[in-house]
Amino acid sequence: xxxxxxxxxxxxxxxxxxxxxxxxxxxxxxxxxxxxxxxxxxxxxxxxxxxxxxxxxxxxxxxxxxxxxxxxxxxxxxxxxxxxxxxxxxxxxxxxxxxxxxxxxxxxxxxxxxxxxxxxxxxxxxxxxxxxxxxxxxxxxxxxxxxxxxxxxxxxxxxxxxxxxxxxxxxxxxxxxxxxxxxxxxxxxxxxxxxxxxxxxxxxxxxxxxxxxxxxxxxxxxxxxxxxxxxxxxxxx
Length: 237
Description:
Elements: E1 6-8, E2 15-17, E3 20-21, E4 29-30, E5 39-43, E6 46-50, E7 64-69, E8 72-77, E9 80-84, E10 98-99, E11 107-110, E12 116-119, E13 133-134, E14 142-145, E15 151-154, E16 168-169, E17 177-181, E18 184-188, E19 200-203, E20 210-215, E21 220-224, E22 229-234
Antiparallel strand pairs: 1-2, 2-3, 4-5, 5-6, 7-8, 8-9, 10-11, 11-12, 13-14, 14-15, 16-17, 17-18, 19-20, 20-21, 21-22
């Protein structure tokens, strides 16, 4: 059974394949199936994961469950947020106020004091510095907001990818990242250097060499990697 073809029903109570339910039970809520073939559900007994046959994958119940990523799923327990393995077993002591999903064997978390940082697949910190915010890792790099309020990129050990600081920042996508300074949004390379001098009200990541942007004057257009206008979408709103 192809997991990508299994859909959540319109009322959110079960899963279907080609428009037909794949099991008979109805739940209070369900989410999508993820590898290794488990989906988060909630019923009168609590929150847990089911197989494609609608059967519980384990006996433990939680307050809330989320999808599996790299064989680990985020859960909420009575003592906090944590992660479980496919057997429903907690993989480390639950102590966080929030956790994300594992990406590249790294996960962003928020502790009870509001600090963000990254943990490994055993729940241990990768570095000791606390952040205002820490995003997912992609291609071994994460965008974070430091305690001084500025943003930068880091590697998994917490070291800086570049020494540049920005007001806002996004993760790298195909070697380039969105960044904002006091003049507006623009794109930067892996060294943190701007690709062009222009600034925009909003921008999107590059898609096959081109990016959708909105100029400071409100014009929607497409630019190339040099910041040159190649196509106008909409002159005014």
